[in-house]
Write a structure and sequence with these properties.
Blueprint lengths: L17 H19 L3 E4 L4 H14 L8 E5 L5 H14 L3 E5 H6 L16 H12 L3 E3 L8 H4 L4 E4 L27 E4 L7 H11 L10 E8 L2 E4 L13 E6 L12 E2 L5 H10 L4 H5 L10 H6 L4
Helix pairs in contact: 1-2, 7-8
Length: 311
């Protein structure tokens, strides 16, 4: 019996669904982290991918406690619905949640904004690396997927980071036959992505199958927006309408729920899991390509940020 097949559910037949295989692979990866790493942490923001990751952790380790804490790097500009969901879910599970804030990094002079209204999203790298040093984490488990954009498609499942938290896509370890090497020297660490091989559609199918709760922002709702550079920008105190822009009330939903200052909704009437699945099947843009304002320029490209220590 292989390590992966040992995690497969007992269905009573030899036929396993696509989601069963993905789940089994993720459980194997989570247990590898627990077995090989001394001080791991699971990144939990309250977004859909981290919700799936958290649920997989319950399947991998319950009824025991998780062998790692939960960690969130808060920009201070997250959607309040998502933060409330994060806190409620961590409390429900009774797991330790560590929160470190970009706001504190700014106050300490570790992060310097070019302007007060600059997005804090890319500056999470500084706060994240400081948290890794503070707690001595040797592995961070994240919900990144290879289908999100090109830089993440280059990632290994166990992604090595050097002593400065830097990612070099050319300096990674082979992962043949689902064998993973998590050995690191002091100061180095791994980023581990158990759902790397999942797609956005897989995530929503799994959420529907497992009956997982998600923040209400993922479902269609009426929201004031302005149209800016081909995107629907939510009108909030952090992202007010500019002079000359017309505010509309539109039925929208969020495909991803990152920092308010750089996350856009999409026009939608999908208010159920089934309707979201239909929309996802027909989508022609990745969720980041369609909804993230800060991923549209080469200066702020994901690969550059990942090389600097981003998620």
């Amino acid at each position: 019996m292989t390590a992966l097949s040992a995690n497969l559910p007992d269905t009573g037949t030899s036929t396993l669904s696509h989601l069963d295989w993905l789940e089994a692979e993720a459980l194997h990866i989570l247990r590898e982290v627990a077995g090989q790493c001394a001080h791991p942490a699971l990144l939990f923001s309250g977004g859909k991918d981290s919700i799936v990751l958290l649920h997989l952790a319950t399947k991998a380790f319950r009824p025991a406690r998780f062998p790692f804490p939960l960690l969130h790097i808060d920009t201070g500009h997250n959607f309040p619905e998502v933060i409330a969901f994060r806190d409620a879910r961590a409390a429900e599970l009774g797991e330790r949640l560590i929160v470190r804030s970009v706001e504190d990094s700014i106050a300490a002079g570790r992060v310097v904004l070019r302007s007060p209204d600059e997005s804090r999203n890319r500056h999470q790298s500084v706060t994240l690396l400081d948290a890794i040093a503070e707690f001595g984490f040797d592995a961070l488990i994240g919900g990144a997927r290879r289908d999100e954009e090109k830089a993440r498609a280059k990632e290994r499942v166990f992604s090595f980071r050097d002593a400065w938290g830097q990612w070099d896509p050319k300096n990674q370890r082979p992962e043949l036959w689902n064998l993973y090497n998590a050995r690191v020297a002091p100061g180095e660490h791994m980023r581990v992505f158990p759902i790397s091989n999942w797609t956005e559609l897989d995530v929503w199918q799994y959420i529907a199958r497992e009956g997982l709760a998600v923040p209400s922002l993922y479902f269609a709702h009426e929201r004031p927006i302005v149209r800016r550079a081909g995107a629907l920008v939510p009108v909030t105190p952090l992202t007010p309408a500019r002079e000359g822009e017309q505010v509309e009330s539109l039925s929208v939903r969020f495909r991803t729920v990152g920092d308010v200052t750089c996350t856009c909704p999409v026009a939608s009437t999908a208010r159920t899991h089934a309707q979201i699945l239909l929309e996802t099947v027909g989508a022609t843009l990745t969720e980041r390509g369609a909804t993230r304002m800060d991923d549209q320029t080469s200066e702020a490209s994901m690969e550059l940020r990942k090389r600097e220590g981003y998620f």
